[in-house]
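To whoever is on call:

I kicked off a structure prediction for a single chain this morning and the downstream step that reads the tokens threw a length-mismatch warning. I double-checked the sequence; it's 278 residues and nothing unusual in it as far as I can see. Pasting both halves so you can look.
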Amino acid sequence: MSNEQNVPISEVAESGPGLAFIAYPRAVSMMPFSPLWACCFFIMIVFLGLDSQFVCVESLVTAMVDMYPSTFRRKHRRELFILGVAVVSFLLGLIMLTEGGMYIFQLFDYYAASGMCLLFVAVFETVCIAWIYGADRFYDNIEDMIGYRPNPVFKYCWMYFTPATCMGTFAFALIKYSPLKYNNEYVYPWWGNGIGWILALSSMMCIPVWIAVKLYYTPGTMKERLVFLTTPSTELPKTKKEQAKLLAVCRADGDSLNQKSPPTKDGYFPVEEKESHC
């Protein structure tokens, strides 16, 4: 292609969607048995898209089902919800098949699916897991699942290195932000970039908005609300280490109870009203 157009290789195609949907198909058409290679190429694109959609749809559906189990964990409710998500996604995708669809696709790719949004979410994920749920508890959960304790370096990465790196990269992306251009030629109007920022904020603002909602509806003073909302639930399943500690406490309580209360004539120990963790 570079030789045919008499231009440098760096100018043959820009990175981005045009590389997959314009440059590669044209390059495949110049190869021997081009129809065969073209079919293989686009089948690969379809499978890559399906693979990505499995992850995206399942993440959304699982989160909603876990948040509202009484609504979605009924007969066929989950399947109908998945169908609704697929239909809405299909209808949104039809917009990108129009003559100006590449411009809309570029808008979604630059703002809605940008690394800036992912970094913002990653900061909150690592902070919640390492500092609210607890890095040690998460470490114990991993040990229960795989049977051994991973390298302690991972714990310190969750607590310090990963949040700091994501936050620094996020700040750098904001500082280096520039308005969107298509193929370095078409400059999007101000309202186009405004729509793009709405798409970006639609995923980022969910976290602070939900925090504000929970703070508003939780009773108590502000300090009590913060402590309550940043404390893991007591209903969480206990790790094997916590179960072992609880079992040791129960055995100690039972031994002390047997020593204090002699058995009755029938051979049974009397039951005392006593607070127990068992």
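Update from on-call: the warning came from a stale cache, not from the record. Cleared it. Sanity check on the structure: The two ends are 74 Å apart (CA to CA).
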